[in-house]
Design brief:
The chain folds into two domains: 4-166; 183-298, Double Stranded RNA Binding Domain. 37% of the residues lie in helices and 26% in strands. It has helices at residues 4-7, 17-29, 38-51, 58-68, 78-84, 92-103, 121-130, 157-163, 217-232, 279-298; strands at 34-37, 71-74, 108-111, 132-140, 147-156, 183-190, 195-202, 207-214, 238-245, 257-265, 268-276. A three-stranded mixed sheet has the order 3-5-4. A three-stranded antiparallel sheet has the order 6-7-8, covered by helices on one side. The termini are far apart.
Amino acid sequence: MTANVFQNVLARHDPHCEYYTSLLRRLASRPVQWYTTSFDWNLALTFWEQFKGAGVDEACQDAYWGLLNQVKAYPLERSVWELSGELQIGNFCDALRLATAIDQAVDVIVTQEPQQFARTVVDSYRAQVDGYFYITLPTICAETGREVNNHIGVFSVGAFLLNLDNIGRLPLVMQLPRSESLRIESLQMIVSDESEATIFLKGCADRITVTARGRTPFEAIQRAIDQAVDEWYDMPIRQLVRFWIRPSTLTGADSPVEMVVGVECGDLNFESSACSGNCIRAAADAYVKVINSICEHLKLKVRDKEI
């Protein structure tokens, strides 16, 4: 856990402060053994001492210390310093955090800024879209002497709480999990009284460009994606039943938002979410995730093309 998990709860002027207080309570209530670096521990203490006089109330204090008292601090050993220089992370402190996580064999890092640990463009994209990603690091097994892959997850606070029960079963490589899956490669949107969406979709062995119009941007997106779905699959009729933005604090115009989409297909309900700094793209990605879930659940195969 990094120190920035604690800091937002101290911004008493922020109308979302109660939300951050709730996050700390939820983290503290989970059956997790928490660790941090020694300098993150000192930062969390400094945050408290510096800002506790700025109107911090009892609820904030209880949440702050309720979690911090559960956290064990790791000292910075020489091996950690040496390893940090090999990790290809530009920020010195984040390199030390990752090196400590590797040295102590933790499962995941929980932070407000998972993108700071991204070492590739793919990692950065996954942090924005899903709120988490896995770092794969080759290591030598002490027992066999063979090279094995060590995986450490990097999660935003929200993604950690959302996926806690599935950590260990989440896909380590965040790419198309199955050859049958759909993926958006590009999306162009014209927004006016009648919106138009042009989407370039990649399927199992084919690509397609689809264009559709709708009264709203999302209706145009849904119609465009459904064109491709109906061409590739014999899928039952689908109906949008839920479409909303998960509550979060926006720190700027490009802050990621999480869009949640629920669809009824036959007698079943499916729901997925996606994060992006572009809410239209997040909605499109979430809808594609729903379609992939339906395909997986119904074991749908791509329709053979007519010759």
